Amino acid sequence: MNGKGFWIGLAVGIIATSLFGQWVLAAAGRAAAPSTCIPAETVAGYVHSVIQADRTFYTTDIVERMQMRGIVFASENWRETARLPLPAQFLIETGRLMAAERGGLRYRLISNWPINKKNRPSTDFERAGLTEILVNSDQPYTAVTTEGGAPVFQALYADKAVSQSCVGCHNAHPDSPKKDFKPQDVMGGILLTIPLPR
């Protein structure tokens, strides 16, 4: 065997082994890799957990704590008075900021007894969901619906009165259609909308 043939054979062998090895590794990776797609129900649960934790912390550890110490108060007209937003307004504003992002994920408050009339249910899904979460407040009401011809996953979670300040505000507000809320009552729902691939 001459030196030239040896080097050609070695190069062909290395290339063939390298290509075959990459093919085997790629095939093994495809077979062993779990699906990277997280179900919409799971994503909704994660997002709701974050929203609920943020809102509960804001309500109990910021608004109530600051008000009890007389430092600053929450007010419905918080922008004009340099006060804190009410906990419902905090959720509405963060939902508005989220909707402004390009991802398509949205959340908002809805209720059968809204102080702000814009928070009334506007679809059959929302109306049915608000009825369902009154009966079964520990489970979200979910469905795949369409918006503008595009599929979306929607989940409606019970929005409970997490503190006495929620109850007091709603029961005392002149525009509130319901004035007998108690702590932990379902006051409405947090509606999550997640775009789905077409």
Short recap of the structure:
The protein has six helices and six strands, in the order ααβαβαβαββαβ. It is of the alpha+beta class and 198 residues long.
Structural class: alpha+beta
- Tell me the total number of β-strands: 6
Number of helices: 6
Cα-to-Cα separation, first versus last residue = 61 Å
Helix percentage range: 40-55%
Q: Which sequence of SSEs, written as H and E, runs from N to C?
A: HHEHEHEHEEHE
General shape: globular
Strand content: 15-25%
Radius of gyration (CA) equals 27 Å
Low-confidence stretches: 9-14, 16-25
Average predicted local confidence, pLDDT? 85
Q: Summarize the main sheet.
A: 4 strands, antiparallel
Spatial sequence of strands, sheet with the most strands: 3-6-5-4
Outline the structure in words.
- The structure is a single chain.
- The termini are far apart.
- This protein has 198 residues and is α+β, with helices and mostly antiparallel strands.
- Strand 1, helix 3 and strand 2 form a beta-alpha-beta unit.
- The longest helix has 30 residues.
- It contains 6 helices and 6 strands, in the order ααβαβαβαββαβ.
- About 8% of the residues have low confidence.
- A 4-stranded antiparallel β-sheet has the order 3-6-5-4, sandwiched between helices. The protein has a two-stranded parallel sheet with strand order 1-2.
